[in-house]
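Researcher: Here's the sequence for the chain we discussed earlier.
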Amino acid sequence: MNIDAAALPHSGAGPARAGLDSLPLHAQAVVTGLLPASDALEQGVLLRLLEIGFLPGEAVRVLARGGVGADPIAVRVGQSTFALRRREASMVQVRLQGPQDLVAQPPQTSGREA
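Model: Thanks. This is the structure I predict for it:
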């Protein structure tokens, strides 16, 4: 199966994008897309990343980094946590989360009818 990661939607607004591997610990970010694959091996990695939820618009943050070399990286995407190699994380493009990414919450009601 061929995946054209370059065709995935990217957000043009907001702060500059970077690889998930360079995101500071616990910083809130949003996935903007995936880098294009350079070979069949990377194509497989991209497919796996898409399957586990690294889709444009998903909330993401780095929870922890390994020791020497910072491998693996513990990452939270949506409601799931995964361990990624630094190289895999670098394929996921993110931008720091801003006010435009917050979902509007409905007003709280007291439960009483007026």
